[in-house]
Amino acid sequence: MMHDAALTVLFYVLGAGAILCALAVVNARRLLRAALALMFVLLASAGLYLLLGAEFLAGIQVLVYVGGIVILIVFAVMLTSAADLLEDHPSPGRMLAGAVASISFLVFAGGVFARLELAAPAPGARPPADASAIGRRLLDFGSEGYVLPFELLSLLLLAAVIGGIAVARKTPPRDQPFTSGGDAPGEVDIVLPRSQRDEPEEPRA
Amino acid sequence: MPDLPLALQFAWLIPALPFAAFIAVGLGVSPLSKRAAGLVATLAVAAAALCAWLVAWEYYGLYPPDAAHPAIVVWSFEWLPYDAGLSASAGVLLDPIAVLLLVVVTTVSALIHVYSIGYMGGDPGYGRFFTYMNLFTFSMLGLVVAPNIIQMYVCWELVGLSSFLLIGFYYSKPEAVAAAKKAFIVTRFADLGFLIGILLLGFHGHASFAELAPAIAPEAAAQGVANLQAFDFHYLTHPEVLARLQAASVPFLGLSLLTLAMVLVFMGAAGKSAMFPLHIWLPDAMEGPTPVSALIHAATMVVAGVYLVARLMPAFAASGDALAVVMGVGVFTSLFAAVIAVTQDDIKRILAFSTLSQIGYMMLALGVCSPAHPLGYTAGMFHLATHAFFKALLFLCAGAVIHAVHSNNIWDMGGLARKMPITHAAFLAATLAIAGVWPFAGFFSKDEILLAAFSSGHTAVFAAALLVAGLTAFYMFRLYFVTFWGGHRGPHAAHAREAPAVMWVPLAALAAVSAVAGFVPIGSFVSWGEAHEVPHCIDLRIAIPATAIALLGFALAWRLYARDGAGAARAAAALGILYRTIKRKFYVDEAYLAVTKGFIFPYIARPIAWFDRHAVDGGVDLAGWITRTTGRLCRRLQTGQVQTYGVWFVGGILFVLLLLWAALA
Amino acid sequence: MLEFLAAHKPGHVEWLLLSATLFAIGLYGVLTRRNAVGILISVELMLNSAALNFVVFNRFVAPAACDGQITAIFVIAVAAAEVVVGMAIFVALFRHRGTIDVNRMNTMKD
User: Fold this and answer.
1) What is the mean pLDDT of residues B416-433?
2) Hey, is the C-beta of C110 within 8 angstroms of any chain B C-beta?
3) Nearest 10 degrees: CA dihedral of B144, B148, B154, B155?
4) Could you tell me if B409 and B487 are in contact, meaning their C-beta atoms sit under 8 angstroms apart?
5) Which of A125, B373, B493, C85 counts the most CB atoms within 10 A of its CB?
């Protein structure tokens, strides 16, 4: 009983905190504060995962999300020199439209959830508490295993890293056609730069 | 029709040849070589003429002269199937008047084509000219051989179109354009009557078709009409049908249906044949090239109205009132136009009014016709044929003269007899023919008309016709003397030269025909009703007064015009206002203008134009405005901002989810 | 007090409502934020709520399995990839145009 009571209290505390911080995320005029609020939302989510018995996931959440993604966002905010910039409030119409859309969604979802009847879980079924169960499933070659998505995910991350580097690299000068790179345009360009294009072609023998 | 001679089976070639040449010259030959265009067109029409003569030979071989001459359909196909049991066919109908017209039209047309090669030489529109001429020849021949009133109407409009195109041939000349429009509008207006007449005949004919057709069909089938239809002439001119139509009456005016329909049909005929009061287009139509005036506005197209009346003669005769209208209009127009012709100065206009007068003569002849006295039918068609030759000849001579003198005004001419001997001789022959001097063709045909009027008891008509004969002799010799005699008046008259051979050979041929055509025993070939005794010898009761009055006209012209115009000027001055009125053509054109400008334009045309501009165009503009405004409003939705689209996207998803939920729950 | 609290242990409806609320707030942010980075942050919020949803269903539908948690891991990984690419694009965009205000990014209109 003690456990259940603590769970209730923690759920509402963490849930309220997450919602408040989320409101701060979308309403803060300073992006840095929004990023900070996001971090608190993610931390609260990690706590909620713990309440749900997903300890491994909670760890991942803190490590990847809070430790990686939020830091990346903070860097991006710095790089786009928006850290000290006060963002303008959106137009009232836009705010109204967004509020109507999101509240309608919430009402709709609430309506669905209220009618949702889940089959009672089998009594005594306990979640696999240890991370090793998840790890085995992830690397399982069998029909229920996730090894293929897992490997694809690694490819995706690799592609994202390379793509991120390629995109964020210094852009080429304006008078040159857009290329994927900028340092050695001649090698990867589809369209030749003007200086080379204007040269008359030499007749082949 | 079993076992027709080959020439009759291939009678469809007569209209088909000019049509093929029209397509070929218009699309293929004319852009390649102008010279070849003229040659191809002329050869096609000449071949058609040859076929026409062969057809005539075979037709009278099949039905010898002095026997009955049935109307046979030698070739036809179903053309417009409107409905089960209601269709119009196109085909070739041959009867004496069709054969006569085929021969006349193709022969005159061929000669005029030859003449045109010389006359139109060097004209930039040479190829176009021959294209139109072939189109006209095809349409006219299609009209002549029409076995039903639908084909006749279609070809009727086609000749109207080609006439319009050829009057406006010099389309850079404003007068020519105006004349073309005038001709088209006036004849279109008349054709409206024709069309209503056709619809009346067709509707009521078709109403009793099921009842009457079984009795008529075998008879018609024996004459080659495989599938009798309500529009066929065989049906429309059958006595039983006519009796049925005559018995029916229209709810207003108390007229019989047949009379009303025939008067409306005659309205179309009067428009095409330029009968008073629809004659106003013909004098202006002289703006076209002279060969066109000769072919279309003298010899062939303008007699289409006469041909139509002759074709529907049984119907006109069954409704005596309609025939009386034909006669009245004919008499009045012949007199009216002859009087005007006396005062005109333009050589082509004199001839145009002469044409009006002569066509009125033919109408008169048809008008005095009746089952008891069918001579008028023969006489009218005879005069049609002879007139086609000598009037075409007159126009071609006028063309040669105009070519030499560069003027249409007869007072710019004079003394051309020595400069242009062949033209002069041909013109003299034609003048003698139209004046009715023995032994030229006009003498015989005119005498026959006079005899028809006299013997059928229309004495007043006879007197009027005699007066017209005198007037005709007078104005034609006036024209002849002023043009060919006396001294040179115009600047070019002194240097006039004879036309080239390609132009004078057709003149000579036509002159020869005009001289001898009168000796054809026409009564044996063309007759209506039961075989009728036509006098083959000259009736002296008619010939003597007719010749006397022609000589009187000649003498008067000689007296006034042979030396100089002084006597004529004095006479004109003595007549004063009467002369001026006649010279202005009785102010008919002015009256038309007053009606159109004073009434039709301000009170009918302008409100309609206003309605069109504001209501109809406004409706179109409104549609455009709605589209544009809708676009402008919708454009606001397209902000180009992804977030706006996102709002709509979410809204759409929610909407669809709600729908799904409502449907599933 | 304890009984009351224990008796009101959050069921699946409460959990799901929590995640839906977070999602709706994220949606509001996506639709209203003027800065591209702000939009990206809001997207992260939505992704997080989705991951939470998976875990909640895992817990309440099939407690013995861990598929929901694995999916949540995937979501986190995909979110990481997305942020990497997104941030790179914003940095490039900022260099190119000097702003990342989405209200000025309406070249689709022309």
Assistant:
1) 86
2) yes
3) -10
4) no
5) B493
User: Does residue C109 lie within any of the structural domains?
Assistant: no
Which residue in the block uniquely carries the two structure tokens 């040669």? B400
B562-611 pLDDT per residue, tens? 776 677 777 777 777 887 887 788 888 888 888 888 888 888 888 999 99
Q: Is the pLDDT confidence value at B411 over 50?
A: yes
Amino acid of residue B238: H
Distance from CA of C61 to the nearest CA of A (A): 6
Q: What is the pLDDT of residue A15?
A: 93
Round to whole Å and give the CA distance between B388 and B390.
6
Any chain A CB within 8 A of the CB of B77?
no
Task: Give residue-wise pLDDT tens across range B266-286.
Answer: 999 999 888 888 888 888 888
* Residues of A with Cβ-Cβ distance to B643 under 8 angstroms: 94
Question: Hey, CA dihedral for C50, C56, C60, C66, is it positive or negative?
Answer: positive
Tell me the two tokens of residue A52.
């749900």
Residue B539 banded pLDDT, cuts 50, 70, 90: confident
For residue C29, give the CATH number of its domain.
Answer: 1.10.287.3510
C-beta atoms of C45 and A38 within 8 A: yes
For residues A70 and A56, give the distance between their C-alpha atoms in angstroms, rounded to a whole number: 19
Task: Tell me which residue in A5, A73, A106 faces C21 most closely, judged by beta carbons.
Answer: A106
* Nearest-CB residue to A90 (from C12, C32, C91): C32
Task: Evaluate if residue A177 carries a pLDDT over 60.
Answer: no
pLDDT of the residue at A126:
62
**By percentage, how much of chain A surpasses pLDDT 70?**
75
Residue B34 CA: distances (Å) to CA of B41, B120, B128, B539, B634 = 11, 11, 9, 52, 60
Is residue B642 within 8 angstroms of chain C, CB to CB?
yes
- How many domains does chain C divide into? 1
Per the confidence metrics, is the pTM higher than 0.90? Answer: no
With respect to residue C6, please indicate whether it lies within any of the assigned structural domains. no
The runs of H, that is alpha helices, within B273-346 are 281-284, 290-294, 304-311, 313-318, 320-343
Tell me the three state secondary structure of residue B535. coil
From the list B311, B303, B351, B355, the residue with the least C-alpha distance to B334 is B355
CA C56 from chain centre, in angstroms, equals 15
Name the residue range of residue C23's domain. Answer: 11-104
Q: Kindly state whether residue C33 falls inside one of the protein's structural domains.
A: yes
Chain C residues within an 8 Å CB radius of A73: 37, 40-41, 44, 83, 87
What are the domain boundaries of chain A? 1-82, 129-171
Hey, are the CB atoms on C31 and A52 less than 8 Å from each other?
no
Q: What angle do CA A161, A163, A166 make, to 5 degrees?
A: 110
User: What are the structure tokens assigned to B411, written together?
Assistant: 């007072």
Task: Choose, out of A52, A77, A134, A146, the residue to mutate when testing the contact with C (most C CBs < 10 Å).
Answer: A52
Before B277, cis peptide (omega within 30)?
A: yes
Q: Which residues of chain C have pLDDT under 70?
A: 106-110
Q: Give the integer Cα–Cα distance in Å for B44 and B24.
A: 11
The architecture in CATH of the region A1-82 reads Up-down Bundle (1.20)
